[in-house]
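Researcher: Structure prediction, please.
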Amino acid sequence: MDLQVPSESKSIAIWLGAVAALLFAMVVLGGVTRLTESGLSMVDWHPVTGWLPPLSDAAWQAEFSKYKTSPEYVKENSWMSVVDFKAIFWFEFLHRLLGRLIGVAFALPFFWFLARKQVPKALSPKLWLLLAFGGLQGALGWYMVKSGLVDRPDVSHFRLAAHLGLAFLIYGFILWLIFGLIQPEEGGLDPLAVAIIGMTYVQILSGALVAGLDAGFIYNTWPLIDGHFFVTGPYDYQGFWQNVLEDRKVVQFDHRMGANIVTGATALLWW
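Model: Predicted structure follows.
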């Protein structure tokens, strides 16, 4: 598609589009890492080094020995051999490696465009903000992993939601910048469309809570929940918000209801 925009803006839009594609792949790979329960296989973080995986049997044994100190190995995976460990290690390693590659794919062209004075003045601070968000996302990912290396063999579902939420904020921000470069004269979104974007974002965060609490299989009937529309007690906590955010039954119910609301609002917008 030929973008009817100045060549400098066109180049920046293509670059940002490539970064957005990498981010999409990153989210998918993060989901695979979560589903394969691979996220706690690497128990340390080296933000600058760490580009290479273990390259010898001794290196693999050393990495496996570090994993053996984690609650996940002690409480759930003590049956594992180094061969089994490799199967989960690779997903987390590739997830981290892709994060580093995204940082390079963003930073190097950005500094190149800056050096050639091709970045529009109004766009420059937004790109600096994106760069900062990228660094924050890496640190937040490690902050999430650390929560599963202390006592319980699982990460905090709140930190998981924050990590996924920031990923989608970055992704949405990049798309917004791309659309602004391609169609700078277009008007704003319909207010209902903006609301649906917000509701969809909340639904994504809700899904992260479901994943973090392993709440997806609490109820396996639909549209009713064991014959009821609402979740029936007993509830795990006394406080209202604790149940909303931490009771596995209620968290799954929230996610279901969020899907219904987003679907209904989208149908209304289409109509």
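Model: Residues 82-115 form the longest helix (34 residues).
Researcher: Thanks, that helps.
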